[in-house]
Structures are given as structure tokens and as C-alpha cells.
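Purpose: get a first structural picture of the assembly so the mutagenesis plan has something to point at.
Setup: four entries, given in the order below. No constraints added.
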Amino acid sequence: MTGHEDRSPTTVEKTAGSAGRIADALRADILSGAFAPGERIRQEVLAERYGASRLPVRDALRALEAEGLVIMVPNTGAWVAKLSLEECQEVYQVRERVEPLLLRMSMPGLDAETRDRLLPLVEAMRQEPQVEEFLRLDREFHMLTYSGAESTILGDLVERLWNTTQHYRRAFTLLGTERTSRTVHLEHEMLALAILRDDPDGAERVLLGHISSTRLELSRHPEVFHRL
Amino acid sequence: MTGHEDRSPTTVEKTAGSAGRIADALRADILSGAFAPGERIRQEVLAERYGASRLPVRDALRALEAEGLVIMVPNTGAWVAKLSLEECQEVYQVRERVEPLLLRMSMPGLDAETRDRLLPLVEAMRQEPQVEEFLRLDREFHMLTYSGAESTILGDLVERLWNTTQHYRRAFTLLGTERTSRTVHLEHEMLALAILRDDPDGAERVLLGHISSTRLELSRHPEVFHRL
DNA sequence: GAGCTTGAAAATGTATCCAATCCTCGTTTA
DNA sequence: TAAACGAGGATTGGATACATTTTCAAGCTC
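Result (C-alpha cells, whole complex):
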């Protein structure tokens, strides 16, 4: 008997043992900016930093490499992934096509309680919070609009796209002018309203425009990508 | 001239690190069907199969897990990734949105020589080749249409999506009826013609329809996903 | 003095060994 | 008789140690 189909781990998404913890910690450190793009990562340093051997560190690096947050070169080392202007625009182009789909799939699954949290988040962002707080609110707002989809594949993809551009969102938030900032607030409010009135087409359209206008903003600040 | 390029007869390419070779070999084995979805993968078996220790095998498994081809459960083992009908449809929905974009980005970069290879490939697929040969031609045809994009991010994403659904494309090719087969050939020809006449909008539309019709085909054969 | 060569140091990749965890199967008990 | 419990076996995860590769810098040649 070849007992292969023992158990179907389709619902199991857990990352492996303690390497998963290291991967989570390192991911958080990269997203928080503690490790900057282009910075070299030495396995030994991480091993000491997280109190483990180099082996789970390598596993974690491989996992993050697959997420697009780390670049590994054989026999050479690992670096925090760095996006060129063109690559960043590419990510945003993918987001323009993918996130409206995820939003559409999510909307039927959003309950009233979840929807009631949308506009308060928009209001909170209007209070001109600090950069890190704004990034957190922005992410929470969009992820909330996606929370109705039990999608695993598309949801993970979108999360990866957000993570790879996290550093650049921070940079652009830092030098954001008031006008673009107000535009973002309006787009967020329009998105929330479209969701509240159960208008999938409108929501898709607004979200596409939101991401698209952000992408166009990238071209106006190429200096963010030049300073290596 | 910094010339250390002199190597012994066994000139190993830059793809050093046997973990990479194992990952490539295992990926090929999964895509070829040698390992079926849902099948358990034991590290020791792979270590012997590829003549290495369990350690590079673990690295390879992690790499493939990140690509979505393998599922790893802590302290338990690894399985070849298996898609449910819903997940497979989700992948196709993502492909519907993403591949037309990649095609649009690719078209300006397609030179005359590359375009001349499109219709012959369509013809070759019309000759009712064996399943494996058809899968190869189909993949080559589509990848050729994408070869004009120097895109790294989007190209890798599309390749991953193709890989995760490779097994199910094989299954559906096996039970394909003549009518659906002819439809596929027509869609391929329309796609090639749209590219040859430099019609990005038309090409996007045809490709979207092509993927979409394939996705709808999935619902008609749920038994492919049940027998697992 | 400039550029190439060479050698040492450091970082990565791999192998072997040991600990922790999970599955299987036999035993026991209600 | 069936279900729950526990011990044994098997498999994975991690740590230490070693081989390989790369890089950097000092020294030598031209």
C-alpha cells in the first residue's frame, strides 16, 4: 500500500518551526525599515541577533527571498531587495490589475461590522498622523476591504506586493505634498463609499484609479530610487 | 584582464550551489508529473535520488514551497502542492488579469524573427501531438509571446502561476474533447494574428477570453479535483 | 608608480550527529 | 467489541564542525 494521501494539508499555511519565527522577525525588521533596501545581510549577524544557528537563518532568508524581500546570490551573500523605479512601477501595474479583483471577491463577504470600521479609518488618516501611523492605518484600511475574501492565493499575492513596496510607500509618504495627500484621502473615502453602497464596479474603478495615480506619482520622484 | 576563467573540463556554470540544482530537478520532476499533487515527499528519498545530503534538499523544498509547488508542515513533512477547484479557478482569475498586461508590455519588444515563430507553433499544435508535446508547445507559444518583456517581476509571477497549474493543464488536455480543442486552436491563431498586426488591445482581449474560457472549462470537470 | 598576482581572512555551502516532534500500532479497559 | 491510552519507531529540525568559494589587501613585477 502506498499510503500517500495521508492528510491534505490544504488548510495548513503554517511556516516551518523556528525558522518561521526568524522569518517573521526579519520580515518585520525589513518592513519597519530597520534593514534598508540594498543593505547586506550577513547570516552570522542574524544568527546572533535572533539567538539561533545559521541554519534556520538560511531557511528564513530563502523564505523571504521567495517573497521578494531578499536577494540571495550563491556563495556571495544576501541583500535586502531593492527595487528600481521601473520594477516598482511594474509592481504597481500588477497591483492595478490584481487588487480590484481581490476587492470584488471580498465585497460579498464583508459583514456590517467590518464595513462600519471603514469610514473611521479614513477619518483617522485625515488627522495627519505620523508617517508610521499613517502607513499602518493605510494598510489596515485596504486589508480590511480585502478581508471578506477567503482567498488564499490572491490574498497572499497582494500581501507580498504590498511588502515589497513597503519601503517606497514610506519614502513617498515622507515627502508627500498636501495636495497629493488630500487626493489620497478623497480616493479612500470614495472607495469606502462605493463599498458601503455595494457597488463592485465602482469600487473596482476607484481602487484602480487610486493605485494608478500612486504609480504615476512614482515617476515624479525618481530621486527616491537613485540614492542607493 | 582579471582572468580566472580557466576551468577544468567540468565547467560548472554560475548556478553554483547544489541546492539550486536539486530545486531545478525537483521542480522538473513535479512539472513532468513524476511527483503527483498530494504525494508525500520524504527528504531522505530525495537526498538519495539526487545524490546529496538532506540539507540542500531542505533548501530546495523551501524554495519550491515559496513557488507554491510544495507544502511543508512543521515537524511533519512535505507534500506536492494540491489545488482545489476553487483555488485553481482563483489562479486562472489572476492569470486573466495579469497575463494580458504582460503581453501588452511584451509586444513592443518582439522582433520580426520572434513573431515569425508564432504561427508555425500554432500549426504544430493543430497536428494533434501527444499530450506532453502539446503541453510543451502550448507553453512555448505563450512564453514566446511574453518574451519581449524584460520584466522580471511580472514574468516570474506568470511563470509561477503556470507552474502551479501545470498538472491540471495536463489532466484537462488528456480529457479534452475535439470541440474544445478546436476552440483552443482558434484562440491561439487569433492571438498570434493580433500580435502580428500590432494590435495590443485586441491581443489583450483575445488572451483574456482564452484564459477565461479555460477557467470556465474547469467547472465542467470537477472530478479532476475530487480524485485526490 | 600602476597593475596584476597571490595569499590570507571571512562568509557561504555542505555533511554528520543529536534532539524534538509526530505517526503507527499494540495494549488495556469500560 | 470498540475506543482511549501509551510506548516504540520513524522522520524532521537544529547545532556544531568542516570544505569551498569569494573577496580584500598586501606584495611583487614591469
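Chain B touches chain A through 41 residues (CB under 8 Å).
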